[in-house]
Design a protein that fits this description.
This protein has 336 residues and is an alpha+beta fold. The longest helix is centred in the middle third of the chain and has 18 residues, at 196-213. The strands form three sheets. A seven-stranded mixed sheet has the order 1-8-7-11-12-13-14. The protein has a five-stranded mixed sheet with strand order 2-5-6-3-4. The protein folds into two domains: 11-46 and 182-328, Cytidine Deaminase, domain 2 (3-Layer(aba) Sandwich); 52-167, no CATH class. The chain is built from 13 helices and 14 strands. Strand 3 (69-71) and strand 4 form a beta hairpin. The chain is elongated, with a radius of gyration of 22 Å.
Length: 336
């Protein structure tokens, strides 16, 4: 049996690696990934634990001040919380607690219930500024944050930064009606079209996973602003012959921009399932490949890259929008 491409490999492909994969036999993909993957090994092996904060419960006001920024925004802007919400910070630059904010605005609790007061006392230490307020403000500039269920924040106290994390259904950005595909893609793909070798590599990984393990697989695409290039990661996931359930890679999402995901339907049709329709409901990029040959000896990359076998779309303003492969990737295969 051939090696599984994911043995000992967490983060798979950088752009330079992908350039070498297009003409590499599928059984050799593992060796290239193993020796040349570009995400630092220390990142994939880190023991660091980052917890999602600033959710429905809120965050302690002492952790926020007038220098706290929001990092990892898709438009590459670092928003300063105090500039976005000046009334939620005091004259010294400290975030107002709920109690202080209520006093400032003349709101007084009239409850005499001791248990309720105890709960309220704990709540008073929480910041008056909520994650829902922040998410709604961000969504005005970038509809990627329009989904309340999919947007979370983690706090990097050393950097004094709230990092945006897209959850594992995660996928993106809505936009206004009437926007053209080119405008939508310019939001989704910050460095322009994806290299065709990224698609070739993902398809080969999907084929390898099926031939070795008879399972689906999901791969996520990220953008590295520093190098102005894209790369691919395999998130932690549970998979079977007909499904895959990924978990968002928080460490990568705090450092890089999440572009979208692709998964392999292998021998089945690449048409979206009802589960796909439910989870792919934001404006990131979503792709699927299917109809690959049952037997590895018959596998054809060229056939797999035909438009009837590999499909991409996004979701904007309540509607799915399909893309031609040539609109997403820099190659000229006919997909009209």
């Amino acid at each position: 049996m051939s090696k599984n491409v994911f043995d000992k490999v967490n983060s798979l492909f950088g752009e330079d690696v992908m350039k070498k994969l297009e003409k590499v036999p599928v059984e050799k993909v593992y060796d290239h990934a193993k020796t040349e993957h570009q995400i630092k090994k220390s990142m994939s092996q880190t023991n660091e634990k980052l917890q999602v904060v600033f959710g429905d419960r809120g965050i302690n006001s002492k952790y926020l001040n007038n220098k706290t920024i929001i990092g990892n925004a898709r438009n590459q802007i670092n928003y300063v919380l105090a500039e976005m919400f000046p009334s939620y910070f005091d004259e010294n630059g400290n975030a107002l607690s709920r109690a202080d904010f209520n006093i400032k605005n003349g709101a007084v609790s009239l409850s005499n219930d001791s248990s309720q007061k105890s709960s309220e006392d704990k709540d008073t230490r929480l910041a008056a500024l909520t994650s829902e307020m922040v998410r709604c403000a961000l969504a005005k500039d970038d509809p990627a944050y329009a989904s309340k269920a999919l947007v979370n924040f983690i706090l990097d106290r050393k950097a004094n930064m709230l990092m945006i994390v897209i959850s594992a259904g995660t996928k993106g950005v809505e936009t206004q009606l009437g926007k053209q595909k080119k405008e939508i893609l310019s939001q989704i793909l910050p460095a322009g079209k994806l290299p065709i070798n990224i698609l070739a590599g993902m398809v080969k990984v999907g084929a390898r996973m099926f031939y070795d393990s008879q399972k689906e697989v999901q791969l996520d695409i990220y953008y590295d602003k520093a190098s102005e290039s894209y790369f691919v990661d395999k998130p932690e996931q549970a998979a079977s012959l007909t499904s895959v359930s990924p978990v968002a890679n928080i460490l990568l999402q705090t450092k890089y921009q999440f572009v979208g995901s692709w998964h392999c339907h292998h021998i089945f049709k690449p048409l979206p399932s009802s589960i796909d329709d439910c989870s792919e409901t934001t404006a990131h990029l979503y792709g699927r490949t299917g109809n690959i040959s049952i037997h590895e000896v018959d596998f054809s990359l060229t056939k797999a890259l035909l438009p009837e076998n590999t499909m991409f779309r996004t979701y904007v303003y309540g509607n799915f929008i399909d893309f031609k492969l040539s609109e997403v990737f820099n190659y000229d295969i006919s997909d009209k």
